[in-house]
Amino acid sequence: MKASIALLPGDGIGPEVTVEAVRCLQSVARRFEHQFEFHEALLGGAAIDVTGEPLPAATLAACRSADAVLMGAIGGPRWSHPDAPVRPEQGLLALRRELGVYANLRPVAPHAALLDATPLKPDVIRGVDIMVVRELTGGIYFGAKTRTATQASDLCEYTVAEIERVTRVAGALAMQRRRQVTSVDKANVLETSRLWRTVVERVLREEFPQLRLEHMLVDAAAMHLLRKPRDFDVLLTENMFGDILTDEASMLAGSLGLLPSASLGATRKGLYEPIHGSAPDIAGQGIANPYGAILSAALLLRHSLELHEEAAALENAVSRSIENGFLTADVVDGTARACSSREAGASVADIVADSG
User: Fold this and answer.
1) pLDDT score of 335 more than 70
2) What confidence category does residue 307 fall into, taking pLDDT thresholds of 50, 70 and 90?
3) Which residue, of 224, 253, 282, is where some domain finishes?
4) 186 is catalytic
């Protein structure tokens, strides 16, 4: 297969982790005899520095012409002070909207070798396997915004069609898993959540009658994620709630640096990125965890390129690398030596190459 991949390294540690993801994709290409072409472009703070815009037209054009988009983190304090007229995050939100990627998939499955890396007891997180489906292009992040010297507002708005389409994604995924969907909302307070609950219930009842559906208020879900995370299978949520809950869920895995994401729409083209931020405090030190970025590349192989064997090979290589002790400082305990980003990425790439 020949595929074109738009590469958006971003800011902070973004370039350091995406280069390792590319290294691993190149190893996959060599082993399975594919040809992946990478086209690098600017997004976020790096784009603001060069062009004054967080999403330059050339970047959007590159993403539209590619088969998939792989990106690192964006943002940082130098661009995000309260009065900044242009922010890196505006570029990411605009890119999601322009590509029409409305469903964000965030798998959370702690590795057995890292059960002690989390602040929770191993017995609580052992066997956890959650797929969070977060609506990505609606809600409060995209609503009308106002600000004066004395007040500010952000409009949270959802349409029936927006809720229907992301619910169908969650339903289809649940059919391939344990056939359970937990829909998260704040229906005791918010009208958008009442609409959310009504639409989710109707779509799953009519189109996925085999599934079990549970509604849960977001505050209860936040507590349940820490008390009984094994109870969750597919977790369906609107945009802001999903953003917050998946950061919380990262502690089940041990680190934000371990978790990937895939943002999908109506076509095979997707946007793939680790869920962590740009971590400017460690940028340039070569110690960032690249596994989230590498696992995002595996999701790219599976969902955009439909290379399922290759995706599994890359995910297995990450698992074996962790088992072999290639752990960065965010998950290593006090008695072991932490490896560098490059060492972790090279380990995965070597395992892919040697397992052919």
Assistant:
1) no
2) very high
3) 253
4) yes
Give the mean pLDDT of 201-223: 98
183-219 burial string, b = 16+ CB within 10 Å, else e? Answer: bbbbbeeeebbebbbebbeebbeeebeebebebbbbe
Give how many domains the chain has, as a whole number: 2
Q: What is the CA radius of gyration of the chain?
A: 20
Q: Are residues 1 and 34 in the same domain?
A: yes
Single out the catalytic residue among 129, 154, 186, 231.
186
Summarize the confidence of residues 229-240 as an average pLDDT. 97
Residue 326 DSSP symbol: -
Point out the catalytic residue in the list 141, 158, 272, 291: 141
Please confirm, yes or no, whether 116 is among the known catalytic residues. Answer: no
The whole-angstrom distance between residue 201's C-alpha and the CA centroid of its chain comes to 25
Question: Hey, is 56 helix, strand or coil?
Answer: coil
Beta bridge partners of 38: 5
pLDDT digits (tens, 9 = 90+) for 111-144: 988 888 888 898 999 999 999 999 999 999 999 9
pLDDT surpasses 70 at 321: yes
What burial letters (b/e) apply to 38-72, b meaning 16+ CB within 10 Å? Answer: eeebbbbbbbbeeeebbbbeebbebbeebbbbbbb
Separation CA 290–CA 342 (nearest Å): 8
Catalytic residue of the set 129, 231, 247, 350: 247
**Residue 186 and residue 66 share a domain:** no
Has 145 been annotated as catalytic? no
Both tokens of 125, joined, read 């997180």
Indicate which CATH number applies to the domain containing 6. 3.40.718.10
CB 228, CB 175: distance < 8 Å: no
Dihedral angle at the C-alpha atoms of 223, 227, 229, 230, nearest 10 degrees?
Answer: -150
Quick check: is 243 catalytic?
yes
**The token pair that represents 143 in the structure block:** 């609503």
Residue 162 within any structural domain of the chain: yes
pLDDT of residue 334: 65
**Tokens encoding 288:** 């960032």
67 is a catalytic site residue: no
